[in-house]
TrEMBL record:
The keyword Membrane applies. Residues 1-17 have a biased composition (Polar residues). Keywords: Cell membrane, Membrane, Phosphate transport, Transmembrane, Transmembrane helix, Transport. Belongs to the binding-protein-dependent transport system permease family. CysTW subfamily. It is found in: Cell membrane. The chain crosses the membrane at residues 37-59, 95-116, 128-151, 209-230, 277-298. The keyword Cell wall biogenesis/degradation does not apply. This is Phosphate transport system permease protein PstA. GO terms for molecular function: phosphate transmembrane transporter activity.
């Protein structure tokens, strides 16, 4: 026993490792502090333009939103140099076009994501994924010109609000597909395997297990897509010019929206028009904010509970 004890003691290191570990810990602590400072600095730098934009919109456009006529009247009969009027016509047009665009885009985007994650194998799935990648990077004006070439030039139809919805659909679908695809991939395979072990068909597993589990993420992706299309201007200018009256028919005449109202008023460099530009901008920001709040509530109350 004494010999073994002597051998064991001789095999131990002669220097204490605490200094070495302490040096490494100090280096890691310095790196951690540096990374933390860099992260906070990047966050503050990214926050500056956001606060600047929001502050400018609230400061310059808040007074317009406080006037009740802004929410109840249109700009019908209001000239560029005349104060007054409202934005109810543009708000209605924006919501109608966004709703129809979502009605077309969400089923297509969600079903495409389900195919890519749950069923997609081989060349067809790669082709679909490649086309989604192309649509993700397409500029909005290219989508508008494509729809114009098909809708107006080829078929000879008039420029209508429904054509705007088709162009916006091309921009919203890839956002919904990619966000839904990522959310479906986060669903643990154990849930699918447990459902299959109980004899549940695959389509019912997707409908009852996979989609409810990832529903909050899907809603977030839909809201991101809506936020993008509600602020687009190029398709609206090319396919649906601005009008100052209330119009709710997607298949007849023109339909005003907040982006086209901003674009139209911005070209008239007089103070009443400038005020309407900031008021419409703040209204658009407020609508997107309310949509995100609504999505938070929907996803919170729609989570799968044990």
């Amino acid at each position: 026993m004494s010999t073994l004890s002597t051998l064991d003691e001789s095999a131990l290191p002669t220097t204490a490792p605490s200094d070495d570990f302490g040096g490494k810990s100090s280096a890691r602590a310095v790196k951690d502090q540096v990374a933390r400072v860099v992260m906070w600095a990047a966050f503050l730098v990214a926050l500056i333009p956001l606060v600047w934009i929001l502050g400018s919109a609230v400061f310059k456009g808040g007074q317009m939103l406080l006037d009740l006529t802004w929410w109840t009247h249109s700009q019908n009969g209001i000239t560029s140099r005349r104060e007054g009027g409202g934005a109810v016509h543009a708000i209605q047009g924006t919501l109608i076009q966004a709703g129809v665009t979502a009605l077309i885009s969400v089923p297509i985007g969600v079903l495409t994501a389900i195919y890519l994650v749950e069923y997609g194998r081989g060349r067809l799935a790669k082709t679909v994924s490649f086309m989604v990648d192309i649509l993700t990077g397409i500029p909005s004006i290219v989508a508008a010109l494509f729809v114009y070439a098909v809708w107006v030039t080829t078929f000879g139809f008039q420029r209508l609000p429904i054509a705007v919805c088709l162009a916006l659909t091309m921009l919203m679908i890839p956002t919904v597909v990619r966000s839904t695809e990522e959310m479906l991939k986060l669903v643990p395979n154990e849930l699918r395997e447990a459902s299959y072990a109980l004899g549940v068909p695959k389509w019912k597993t997707i409908m009852k297990i996979v989609i409810p589990t990832s529903f909050s993420g899907i809603v977030t992706g839909v809201l991101l897509g809506l936020a993008r299309v509600m602020g687009e201007t190029a398709p609206l200018i090319i396919l649906g010019p601005y009008t100052a009256v209330i119009a709710t028919n997607l298949f007849d005449g023109l339909m005003p929206t907040l982006p086209t109202m901003i674009f139209q008023s911005y070209g008239e460099s007089v103070q009443p028009s400038v005020d309407r530009v900031w008021g419409a901008s703040l209204t658009l920001i407020l609508l997107v904010f309310l949509l995100n709040i609504a999505g938070r509530f929907i996803s919170r109350f729609s989570k799968v509970r044990n």
